[in-house]
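Is this the right way to post structure tokens for a design question? Let me know if I should format differently. Anyway, here goes:
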């Protein structure tokens, strides 16, 4: 029996994040890989390190029917899970610091239209057990036209 190849395609990503009234927008190119009912979105972002240096971070967003998981590798290692109505454990590690964190997701909306996707969620971020901030994230993922 031949192995079923996952569905893989290039995507354009627009990520809008609001924390305490401050808005930031990230645009990136990446790829989407569909495996069964789960969609993986992968992209790379360049972040500013503590000494002002450029740090490359590979991000994977795992989108499933019951929630999201955000995994980062590279200059920063972190994992955050988002499931509405529950507090999920996670972590953050860089060469300069590391700590446990957790997310309390208040809202999660996933709208899929063909190979395009809009994911938006609101959550409270806790570092150790202290509330660190409230976030609203909106992510548009659109299939890029094949040339």
């Amino acid at each position: 029996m031949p192995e079923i190849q996952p569905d893989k395609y290039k995507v354009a990503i627009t990520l809008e994040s609001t924390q305490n009234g401050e808005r930031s927008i990230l645009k990136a190119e990446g790829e989407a890989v569909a495996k069964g009912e789960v969609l993986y979105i992968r992209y790379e972002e360049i972040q500013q390190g503590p000494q002002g240096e450029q740090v490359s971070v590979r991000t994977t967003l795992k989108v499933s029917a019951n929630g999201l998981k955000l995994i980062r590798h590279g200059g920063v290692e972190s994992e955050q899970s988002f499931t509405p109505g529950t507090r999920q454990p996670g972590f953050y590690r860089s060469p300069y610091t590391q700590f446990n964190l957790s997310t309390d997701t208040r809202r999660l909306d996933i709208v899929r239209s063909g190979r395009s996707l809009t994911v938006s969620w609101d959550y409270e971020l806790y570092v150790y057990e202290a509330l660190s901030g409230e976030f609203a994230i909106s992510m548009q993922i659109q299939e890029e036209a094949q040339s």
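Format looks fine. Someone answered above. Worth noting: The longest strand covers residues 98-113. The radius of gyration is 16 Å.
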